């Protein structure tokens, strides 16, 4: 599975099966979170970056490490702290005494999968160092631009409840994340199963098998790029984005980048489902994770602890899906 | 932030408002007796005409209603910025103030002393020449006092009954609106609900399926259109069966809603939905095999509906079957086993 020399010939169905196998394997380690795992996999397929936002101890770091292991990706982790410097992320040139030259020492960002743990604990200056890497897959140090690995994926975690000593991510950086994932607590039955599995394996974490490699991920993304989407569905995505800009409880609506992310994630979901075409469910089900972190609520709603997820769900329930009949004729 | 804010409504010109206030004061002065004290019970030149009182009440009520409509947005806009204590006070005061303005119009009409015609048209009666001692004003019952017209006003109990009726109507309207806001449905009469899930539904479903068959026969050359027509027929059938269809529903939502409503047309519906998705949202070539598969799914749904209609004919008036069976044979613990 990991070494397919002709990645361009893969079909959406094949990629869907392979990605499904990866999800099942990760599911052995991250118990009871199939929806969160699927969303992260969509980020992998769509070539975006994922923000995992939830309380401590819910398995955010385990999730990122499990994806790196199962996908066979080079993995680095940055624990963001208030004293972290931008050069700690991107790398820095150091003087080599033997050669008398400045030699660039790449930072942890030069990897396939970067886990940015507790990204909201570092000042904006260091957060911004990650911006260029996330948006353009390259870093510029001392005027020299260096490309990052392909694939390059950032899985960032953030704790939404602790505000002491944290720096909220600016909208510009939030917009760089293709989707936001919330883990949520396990049910009592799932938590019991997790404890039982921990006792049975007699080890802190499950040992996962590598089922793919970097080239596979690149090939999967190429398949996503071939997924077709009907014009009516594009209009539906645009209507959803536009509704966020007109909603009375939202002060800043989703950006055009949000629409791009929504469509790309919908195409990835189609591939994960073994299809090479997008259906309304792909767009509708992904509207909240793709757009909710890109909008800002009016300040008075913060006091009421309303979340952007709630408002986005209300928007999704109010925007009409494409009609049953086609608006433009397509020949058989 | 400019977008998302409500466009302010254009206010009425000040001259118009001033003229309206002056006119209202003039009418009020003519209807009352401006030369007398505030608590004087007499009437002014316009006070004899009942239609003036009716008109003033109607205009007042209409004005109060218009003001309520205009002020509702302001109340709604301000509520988000209030602390919880003031918010509760606002929630109590706002409806009270708005409702009171309307009630004043109703009270003005109800409490108006309508003239009967004979007490004011004739000359005042001559002074009594009876040697009997003249009773003092305080000793007379109210209906016999000079100038009193209480016999022509509405009795107090009638006023109270009217006010109670208005209050009941307002409460019912408020409850219904609150139920609708939370997505709840007003309970219907059992007889109507039972009829809606009986034979009529089955006939509606079958007619929808038959329309799908007709559409299928009319699109023999276009497999894509035929598949979409089959799905549209199934969609119509589900809607006819009482499954609510929202504009924001995806095909999966409709199937889930149908399952939630107890309508389970077997595996044919998901199969037909999958075919529809491919026909509607992909450019895959659609051929006779797809058309045939869609037609087969539609036939399967039709046969299920036929069976359901037959069950309905055998058990007329049976909404969901089980309850009626239990009613007819309460000792039978498993009525399904007899079918």
From TrEMBL, chain A:
Residues 49-178 form the ATPase AAA-3 domain. It holds the Pfam family AAA_3. It comes from the Bacteria. The lineage of its organism: Bacteria, Bacillati, Actinomycetota, Actinomycetes, Kitasatosporales. This is MoxR family ATPase. Signal peptide: none annotated. InterPro entries: ATPase_AAA-3, CbbQ/NirQ/NorQ/GpvN, ChlI/MoxR_AAA_lid, P-loop_NTPase. Residues 243-315 form the ChlI/MoxR AAA lid domain.
TrEMBL record, chain B:
Residues 117-148, 302-339 are annotated as: Disordered. Residues 230-299 form the Protein-glutamine gamma-glutamyltransferase-like C-terminal domain. Residues 308-339 have a biased composition (Basic and acidic residues). The chain crosses the membrane at residues 12-34, 46-68, 89-111, 154-176. Residues 122-134 have a biased composition (Pro residues). InterPro entries: TgpA-like_C. It comes from the Bacteria. Keywords: Membrane, Transmembrane, Transmembrane helix. Pfam families: DUF4129. This is DUF4129 domain-containing protein. It comes from Streptomyces hyderabadensis. The lineage of its organism: Bacteria, Bacillati, Actinomycetota, Actinomycetes, Kitasatosporales.
């Amino acid at each position: 599975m990991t070494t397919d020399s002709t990645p361009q010939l893969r079909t959406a169905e094949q990629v869907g099966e392979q990605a499904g196998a990866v999800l099942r394997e990760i599911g052995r380690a991250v118990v009871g979170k199939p929806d969160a795992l699927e969303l992260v996999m969509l980020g992998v397929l769509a070539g975006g970056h994922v923000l995992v936002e939830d309380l401590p101890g819910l398995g955010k770091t385990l999730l990122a490490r499990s994806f790196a292991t199962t996908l066979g990706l080079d993995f680095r982790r940055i624990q963001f702290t208030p004293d972290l410097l931008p050069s700690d992320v991107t790398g820095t040139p150091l003087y080599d005494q033997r050669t008398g030259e400045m030699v660039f020492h790449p930072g942890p960002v030069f990897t396939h999968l970067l886990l940015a743990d507790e990204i909201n604990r570092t000042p904006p200056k260091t957060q911004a160092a990650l911006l260029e890497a996330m948006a353009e897959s390259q870093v510029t140090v001392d005027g020299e631009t260096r490309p990052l690995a392909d694939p390059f994926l950032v899985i960032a975690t953030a704790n939404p409840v602790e505000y002491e000593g944290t720096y909220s991510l600016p909208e510009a950086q939030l917009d760089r994340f293709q989707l936001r994932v919330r883990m949520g607590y396990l049910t009592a039955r799932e938590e019991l199963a997790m404890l039982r599995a921990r006792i049975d394996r007699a080890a802190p974490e499950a040992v996962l098998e590598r089922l793919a490699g970097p080239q596979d991920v690149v090939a999967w993304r190429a398949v996503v790029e071939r997924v077709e989407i009907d014009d009516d569905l594009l209009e539906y995505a645009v209507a959803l984005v536009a509704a966020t800009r007109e909603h009375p409880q939202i002060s800043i609506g989703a950006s055009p980048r949000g629409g791009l992310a929504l469509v790309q994630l919908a195409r990835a979901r189609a591939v994960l489902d073994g299809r090479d075409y997008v259906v309304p469910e792909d767009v509708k089900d992904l509207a909240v994770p793709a757009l909710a972190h890109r909008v800002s609520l009016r300040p008075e709603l913060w006091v009421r602890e309303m979340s952007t997820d709630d408002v986005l769900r209300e928007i999704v329930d109010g925007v009409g899906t494409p009609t049953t009949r086609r608006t433009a004729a397509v020949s058989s | 932030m400019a977008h998302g804010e409500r466009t302010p409504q254009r206010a009425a010109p000040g001259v118009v408002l001033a003229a309206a206030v002056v006119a209202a004061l003039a009418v009020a002065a003519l209807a009352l007796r401006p030369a007398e004290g505030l608590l004087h019970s007499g009437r002014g030149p316009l006070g004899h005409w009942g239609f003036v009182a009716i008109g003033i009440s109607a205009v007042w009520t209409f004005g109060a209603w218009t003001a309520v409509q205009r002020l509702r947005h302001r109340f709604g806009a301000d509520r988000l910025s209030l602390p919880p204590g003031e918010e509760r006070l606002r929630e109590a005061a706002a409806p009270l103030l708005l409702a009171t303005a309307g009630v004043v119009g109703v009270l003005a009409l109800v409490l108006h002393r309508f003239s009967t015609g004979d007490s004011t048209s004739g000359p005042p009666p001559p002074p009594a020449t009876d040697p009997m001692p003249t009773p003092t004003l305080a000793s007379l019952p109210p209906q016999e006092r000079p100038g009193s017209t209480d016999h022509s006003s509405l009795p107090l109990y009638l006023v109270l009954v009217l006010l109670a009726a208005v209050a009941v109507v307002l409460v019912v309207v408020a409850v219904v609106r609150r139920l609708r806001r939370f997505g709840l449905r007003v309970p219907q009469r059992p007889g109507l609900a039972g009829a809606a899930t009986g034979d009529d539904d089955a006939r509606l479903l079958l007619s929808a399926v038959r329309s799908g068959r007709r559409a299928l026969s009319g699109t023999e050359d276009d497999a894509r259109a035929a598949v979409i027509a089959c799905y549209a027929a199934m969609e119509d059938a589900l809607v006819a069966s009482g499954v609510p269809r929202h504009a924001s529903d995806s095909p999966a939502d409709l199937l889930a809603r149908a399952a939630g409503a107890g309508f389970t047309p077997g595996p044919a519906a998901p199969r037909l939905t999958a075919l529809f998705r491919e026909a509607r949202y992909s450019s895959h070539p659609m051929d006779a095999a797809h058309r045939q598969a869609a037609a087969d799914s539609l036939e399967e749904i039709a046969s299920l509906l036929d069976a359901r209609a037959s069950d309905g004919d055998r058990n007329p008036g049976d909404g969901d079957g089980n309850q009626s069976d239990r009613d007819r044979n309460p000792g039978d613990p498993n009525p399904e086993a007899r079918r």
